[in-house]
Amino acid sequence: MEENQVYEKKSLKLFTKKNPDWNKLIKECVCLANRTGGIIEIGIEDDSDYPPANQKIPIKLRNDIQSKIENNTMNVGVEVISQVHNSSEYLKVVVKRNKEAIASTTSGRYFIRVGEECKPLLPDELQRLMEDKSSFTWELKTNLNLDISIYDREKASDFIDSITKSNRVTKFIKDKTFEEILAHYFLIDGNKFTNLGVLWIGKREQRARLSYAPAVQVIKYDSTEKKIRKDSYDDYSLNPQELIQTIWDKTPEFKYFEEISDGIYRKNIYDYDEKVIRELLANCIVHRPYTTRGDIFINIFEDRIEFHNPGLLPIPVTPKNILHESVPRNQHLASLFYALNLMEKEGSGYDKIYEQLLFSGKQLPVVEELEDRVKVTIFKAIIDKDVIRFLNNVSKEFELKTKEKLTLGIIAQHHSLSLTEISDIIGLEEVKVDRDWISGLLEKNILVKKGKTSGMQYLINPKLLKNYKFKGRTNLKTIENHRLKELIREDLSKFPMSNRSDIHERIGKEINTRRVRQILKIMQDENIIKKIGNTSNTVYTLKDIKQK
Asked: What is the pLDDT of residues 116-133, one digit of tens each?
């Protein structure tokens, strides 16, 4: 098993040497406790899934590890368990997630897991994490003291009907009694409704007393961004499932589409894909902090839709890493949404949003974290209709993983990209992008490389483009070096004494910055151009132009 954000492997040698690095183990336990919890297996090497043959764990080590962690951390719950695999021993350190308090070292240091790394919490992040802790326990609170005999019978019947029809719910759960199903999904606790239960099958007046039940405002703007319509869903009569369906049904802009040719057939590309709209709305309801006041706003403009959700992203999720980082703020609500087919599994929702948008020829969503809310913008325009046909043809011929589909879609829209550019779009380290997102496409000969070292570009195999008659938009990203030289020579003949950024702007911003810099250096070495000045004042001119 590979290491990930909830699983670590450590060699036994680290703990049997003269001075074990206890501080590193303690730090990682704090990181996991502040995230979702996790497992650290001691006695398994990084490149292996199992302990070395005939490995024996020193008798005192299990107790030493338990003691070191307990005595050097605050609010960290761990259990150290002895394990055996084929007569080889190892230890499993189970770190429990702390839902109510922030974990730290006894020296007052705070850390959190981000991907596979432990990072210190900054003061402002610490405050946000403290606020998030109360959100994590909101679902299961029973502070309304409502007896389970008082609920909305129609909503309860619809809930049970949806559960029994869901392909994501096992027969074992479907065969439970009514109260057992409610308890399984944490809608009740003993003889009381939880907040989650009130939200889903409570009466309108009960839901209105929650702090804070979701309310949605759908606002339409004209071409001058003047408000022309407002639909409010704030009377607490609808549960989350009904809310999503009603908003979808009653918003006409969600039904508009454009026809494009697909061979001898016609295909409808909707201005705003239903799966994308539903997933984003579900994200607003599931991932908002229910201890924060504020309505959800869906602002519909001529060229875009903005989803505004109160509260900030949970630590350590950021707009840059949202595609692959996930923190279950309302875990039981998310599980219920997944069971009812209202959203994708935790951590895969944005994957599907990206994939759906790319395969519809649309721009990727823009995620922004504002002062008191998160804004997600999706766009109406189709960037390139040929991209839609090409991606659909490739997906029919090749069995691609989600990551490969996203990479292919991103490159198809940009024509070619460097590893750095792909990494920046995805928000992940280059080594992981190269290993998990690109390598499979290279092995299948869907992508090819062009150039060397830092100037290397990834582009779609020209043979594949020819087979599917994909032309794409004209751009200069893959222009040959000799043509790029001539382009720069022509530009400098018209605009001598220009700096690099001005040259780059005029010849084509889509050309990689490193390539422009490299070609300018080559042209200097070949005495075609000369550089005047240094640092920020550097300008270029043709060698044969005399300066006054």
From this structure: 788 898 888 887 887 777
